Predict the structure of Glyoxalase/bleomycin resistance protein/dioxygenase.
Amino acid sequence: MIDHMNLFVSDRTQSKRFYEAAFAPLGYRIVMDGPWGTGFGTHKPYLWLSDGKPTDHLHVAVVAETREAVDAFYAAAMAAGGRDNGAPGIRAHYHPDYYGAFVLDPDGHNIEAVCRKPVK
């Protein structure tokens, strides 16, 4: 449903390093980068970082193909300077197979990786 989303960040260089590390385990990378912003995705940008003043903290959830990818996202984000906002685990109050992890980026945005696939 969402084509793309834009986050305004106070320090794009710092945020770019954070997102590169956090998104690598999920298969997302920088696909466009220029004075207008930095776009992360697979073949096209889905999440843009733009220079500006963050106004409100947003919640962005990105798809993880496996629970292991959620775990790797969380570890990479924490190592890149993220702050814990919910360690990897089942969130049964959302859905019985909802496995997610939440981190706060350098500007306090709540970034989540979620896998909705059941354990086989």
Q: What stands out?
A: The mean pLDDT is 94. Helices lie at 12-23, 67-79. The longest helix spans residues 67-79. DSSP finds two helices and eight strands in the chain.
